Amino acid sequence: MEMIKQSLQQKQIQKLSPLQIQTIKLLELPTIELEQKIQKELEENPVLDEVTDDNPEDDEGLPKKVSLSDYPADDQTPSYKTYVNNQGKDLKPQYNTFSVKESFHQNLESQLGYCHLTPRARQIALFIIGMIDDDGYLRRDLQSLADDISFRLNIETDEKELEDLLSIIQEFDPVGVGARDLRECLLLQIKAKPQSQARDDAQEILENHFEEFTKKHYSKLLSKMKISEEQLKAAIDEIVHLNPRPGGQIDDSYTEQAQQVVPDFVLELKDGKPVMSMPRFNVPELKINKRYAEILMDSASKSTKEGKEAVTFVKQKLDSAKWFIEAIKQRQRTLQNTMNAIIEFQYDFFIDGDETKLKPMVLKNIAERTGLDISTISRVVSSKYIQTHFGIYPLKYFFSEGLMTESGEEVSTREIKKILTESIEAEDKSKPLTDEELVTVLTDKGYKVARRTVAKYREQLNIPIARLRKEI
Prior knowledge:
Helices cover about 50% and strands about 10% of the residues. It is of the alpha+beta class. The chain has 3 domains: about 15-100 and about 260-400, no CATH class; about 105-250, no CATH class; about 400-470, Arc Repressor Mutant, subunit A (Orthogonal Bundle), CATH 1.10.10.
């Protein structure tokens, strides 16, 4: 008989307390969602209450705070304070808000609402809009689009009908939307410009000489169009000032829905030094409902079945309220400590907002300064904003990778990108700098960067290669 060996392994598993779970969930919430969460808790937990003029905290004959140790406890959790003040002296404090731009597709759909179309045509047009990507292009051929519409909407259509509806959409703002390629996008924009010789020449280039234009074969353009260098330069100037990504000018960071954002932090300069505060937000001051506390205390002395059930119910609600109030307090402390650590780390940047002063910073840097876990810092940084005297920034903005200078000092990649941009803007456009030459420029300035790194940053900045930057 084969022996079966059994081995037991003892694993230490950390079990999170209800308070820790509650705190983790609240850490991720931006201010507006926190307000909604608190309102939801107030509606669902009758033990939670808010301080108002009608029920001030120092009501005569009632204890100012309820001692949770006065009722039977089944666990060993500490007796947390049951009152948290989320406001200052003002009963209804104000905060600044800002909204991100309307989403790209919402913008197109709202414009479609002004068009006189049949319900059937409107349904097809909405489908076409849904197929337009965030850059503003329709990258599907009309025949495959017709097949999709037949399958998904159960509407039979053809390329001719789709072409007619697409023509309507291509009249929407931003100009150039709904194009199927770059050439069509630029043509839609150039046709919308006021009549001029430069505009007409630009249209001819896009319609008849687009390949020569993209390859910068200017001598061929001069020969075929029979125009002067000045006329060609004026025409090209018209083209290069068009927008190759019409969708991006609506908004390229919040494409799903328009959002209102409340800054979680406010930074001001006082006596030349950055001082951070957390704005008062429109949530109530929370406390334990004394009436339910009295029910608990009264019922605790009863031995009836109903009395015991009342104790159990109210105790559960008191536990939940206790954890929620303390979790909010811990959230505020964690956010404050994290933001102060970021400001301390990026102190020079927060003086005037100069991007070149941003130091390379990762989550670990702030975790070490605060004594918090990296996962906690990540939750704090997520969806949080700070309002400064030079703009509003998401906290993620301040975290970036870094590079080393020849002297061994770390510099932010933003600093490298800024120097690259300035160098390219100052170059001789008749002989634009190659990536190898840009490496030399950076080396001369003391930055040790490989050619492939220069190419990567140039592409991230949407700057074309040297040949395509050449001008006559």
